[in-house]
Amino acid sequence: MLADMAATSDIPILLVNQGEEPRAIQDYLLANRVSPAAVVLDRSSAMMRALENTALPATLFVDESGQVVATHVGEISRAAMTAQMDELRGE
After folding, report:
1. pLDDT tens digits, 68-87
2. Where do the domains of the chain lie?
3. 28, 40, 49, 58: most buried by Cβ count inside 10 Å?
4. What's the CATH superfamily of 2-89?
C-alpha cells in the first residue's frame, strides 16, 4: 500500500529499510513488484537512532520545513495514511 501511494502521491513518500542486506531487499521488491525508486537502505539503522524510535514499522510525517510532525507506530491503514497526508496539505 505504501509503495502504491508513493508511486502516485503529490507528497514525496520515502520508504526506508533498516538493517537488512541489499540482496534480500532487492528480492523482496522484485517479488512484490515494488519500485526501488523510493526505497532507501539504512543498513546501520542510523535513522532509528537519530529519531529515537525503537519500534518498526513506523511511519513518520515530515512537513515542508523538515520537522517530524506526526508518527504512527505499527502497521498503518490507507485511511490513516491519507488522513495524515491531507493534514500535511492543510486540508
Report:
1. 999 999 999 999 999 999 99
2. 2-89
3. 58
4. Glutaredoxin (3.40.30.10)
Encode pLDDT of 16-32 as tens digits.
998 899 999 999 989 98
Classified as helix, coil or strand, 23 is helix
Banded pLDDT at 47 (limits 50, 70, 90): confident
Altogether, the residues listed in the chain come to a count of 91
Which residue type is seen at 49? R
Q: Where are the alpha helices (DSSP H) in 22-61?
A: 22-31, 46-51
| Distances in whole angstroms, Cα of residue 68 to Cα of each of 28, 37, 40, 80 | 28, 22, 18, 16
This prediction's pTM? 0.81
